[in-house]
Amino acid sequence: MWAYVITIQPTEFYANWPSESAGEYRYVGPKTRETPSLTTSAGTSALVMESYVQDGSKSINYFAGRGKLMSEPIDYDAITAAQKLTWSKGDFHQIARQNVCMADALCEATDPRAGNRVLDIACGSGTVALVAARRYCEVTGLDYVPALIDRAKRRAEADDLEVEFQVGDAQNLPFPDAYFDHVLSVYGVQFAPDQERAAREMLRVCRSGGRIGLATPLAKGWSGDFFAAQARHMPPPAGTRPPLHWGTDTGLAELLGDGATSIQSEERIALQYYRSVDHAANVFMNYFGPAIRASEASDRERLWQDLRAVFDRYNRATDGTAVIENRYLLSIATRA
Ligand SMILES: C[S@@+](CC[C@H](N)C(=O)[O-])C[C@H]1O[C@@H](n2cnc3c(N)ncnc32)[C@H](O)[C@@H]1O
Questions:
Q1: Which domains does the chain possess?
Q2: Is residue 109 classed as helix, strand or coil in its secondary structure?
Q3: Second label for 141, Cα 20 to 30 Å away, from 114, 131, 212, 248?
Q4: pLDDT by residue (tens digit) across 278-328?
Q5: Considering the entire predicted model, what is its pTM?
Q6: Which atom of ligand 1 is nearest to the CA of 95?
Q7: Residues with Cβ < 8 Å from 48, sequence gap 6 or more?
């Protein structure tokens, strides 16, 4: 008998998967390599994308099982602690330069004015916070990786900008109710494993009539392909929904709908510039915490090849450099 944890992804990312059966299930039974489908407790069939031996030691893709499936309670604290370690690896600041154009677009769209209180959640080295601070806003940036917060403080000082940076968790914001006029995040809060709680926290700290602005990775495009390639080397945590859930109308309505008078979204393109496609893959392998973590759990050379293939697929440049097309969703919710 073998024990597998089987991940089923939500329907909006992979055709015809019932979202109510998304999550992770334990399958205990004979080892099988038959049809890659299974019947969930909801009575529906789904394709099995990732399954792995329960101790996490070995990654086995496309195993299938049939049997009684049980969902397990999710230990969000343990997942958050593990993810914090992952984001502490490498140096996200080296990647963040490619996010500045999204921070500019987000501030242009949500339009914070001088004196407005602005929160940048999961700010990394301060990407959005510094843009808002240039508008003379009263800005706070929060991230749970102390080294990134230190870097953000040094950047603000170098640019002579006043920003309050602090270490904290997006799922437990250390701010009073209705404190901020603008609550923003670029590729940040979306990574919190307890999405409902992170959404509740954003709504809680935003004043009525204030704006919640997000730049979110999309399933179709560079981000989705990048995460999928990475997940083949290190499966996502048990039972959690992918960050891409925030990049769908359904996800945004589920997460923010009850606390917003309106939610508007549009697809945007951010271009990432590198010396070459190889250089792009190297930058992520050397500095991007989740890729470093995946390389530790898997075959580093194969991961590099897989990530390189994703960069190559979205490269617009024909002069040997790399100009990577990244589609993302820019969303603005107005707080009820
Ligand atoms: C892709 S980076 C984006 C950073 C920044 N927003 C930017 O655009 O440059 C994701 C960031 O989210 C942070 N993060 C992820 N989960 C978090 C959580 N639960 N609480 C606080 N920060 C978190 C990571 O430490 C990392 O800095």
A1: 2-72 (no CATH), 79-273+324-335 (3.40.50.150)
A2: helix
A3: 248
A4: 999 999 999 999 999 999 989 999 999 999 999 999 999 999 999 999 999
A5: 0.83
A6: 9
A7: 6, 7, 8, 36, 37, 38, 62, 63, 64, 65
